Amino acid sequence: xxxxxxxxxxxxxxxxxxxxxxxxxxxxxxxxxxxxxxxxxxxxxxxxxxxxxxxxxxxxxxxxxxxxxxxxxxxxxxxxxxxxxxxxxxxxxxxxxxxxxxxxxxxxxxxxxxxxxxxxxxxxxxxxxxxxxxxxxxxxxxxxxxxxxxxxxxx
Length: 155
Hints:
alpha+beta, 3-stranded antiparallel sheet, 5 helices, 3 strands, 13% strand, YkyB-like protein, YkyB
């Protein structure tokens, strides 16, 4: 039997994965791992939705909201679902002065802990793109054309 992970361990692992996902080149797996872990924690009563916040830099200049979620002594944001707008109160703008606790956990340890908790592994996300966010189409590199001139201005 696997040892039960504490809420603090899971929240610290989510924090570590979230921090790395913001700078990773391929962050689909990390964000999917975060989302599934938080959703499972909410279903089991280990985390709770507190309300909605305005997104600081919304896409396409339209106002957007995100769901504020509390896991142990950490706070995270996820994209809202339709029912969240009906069931949760809007808290307004994000408090810029609050920061999550600074605990260190290696990315490999955090990914292992969360993938054991959720059952999600990188190979599952790669095989089933519907689990991950929308994929960007691969673009071909543009070949530069070189121009050679037969004569110069000074001829």
